[in-house]
Write a structure and sequence with these properties.
mainly beta
């Protein structure tokens, strides 16, 4: 049986998801020896500026570990002018936090992570289009640093490097039709994302308080 890049990426993504859930389960089983669980909501401001709404949630446990799930969705188009800006997808990441800041405040300071992602898209400008008719899969690593802004807000700066694979269709709108000019297997390794992410810890008083010991 032939195993394709897509099959490999599906397997890796499944392993990342399974290990994340398993670690989270283990991390919540010994609450007497570790801080409580904190939850943060977040949005990558760079995606928002690109008119691509981005929403995520991150859950910390065992002080130095967290699980992050982010989703993007944009479905803008103008048929009369043949312009499309469409993308949807999600990314799951397991993070390890290190340095002195994490002992003072949840999800603050240096972090590294491993991620898996699923996306599809359709971009068309100036008489040319690029489309992923099926899911494009990605895996990789992430490094970042999260700064404390106030009692409930952080700013997370991060960059990720990884590998992605999916079908890429290039097309041109002609005479009311979309004509395919090229179809290929897209494979890429290198920088896959940059984040300037606003992080919010919802709650009042000590409820979901990110500051350790407060």
């Amino acid at each position: 049986m032939k195993i394709t890049d897509s099959d490999i990426l599906k397997i890796v993504f499944s392993l990342i998801f399974s290990s994340t859930i398993a670690t989270a389960w283990c991390g919540t089983s010994d609450r007497d020896s570790s801080p409580g669980i904190e939850i943060a909501l977040k949005s990558n401001l760079l995606h928002d500026l690109a008119i691509t709404p981005d929403v995520g949630v991150e859950i910390s446990f065992k002080e130095r570990y967290s699980v992050s799930l982010e989703g993007v969705y944009a479905w803008w188009g103008c048929d009369t002018e043949h312009r499309y800006w469409r993308i949807r997808g999600a990314q799951l990441e397991m993070r390890l936090w290190f340095g002195d800041k994490i002992s003072e405040r949840a999800m603050t300071g240096h972090h590294i992570g491993v991620y898996g992602s699923l996306h599809d898209y359709d971009f068309e400008f100036g008489g040319k289009g690029w489309q992923s008719p099926h899911i494009t899969y990605g895996i990789g690593v992430n490094y970042g640093y999260s700064l404390r802004l106030n009692s409930r807000l952080n700013l997370d700066l991060n960059i990720q490097i990884g590998y992605s694979s999916g079908t890429l269709v290039k097309y041109k709108p002609q005479c009311g039709q979309y004509v395919c000019t090229d179809r290929s297997r897209h494979r890429y390794f290198g920088p896959t994302g940059v984040g300037v992410t606003l992080v919010w810890f919802p709650g009042k008083g000590n409820k979901n308080n990110p500051n350790r010991g407060l």
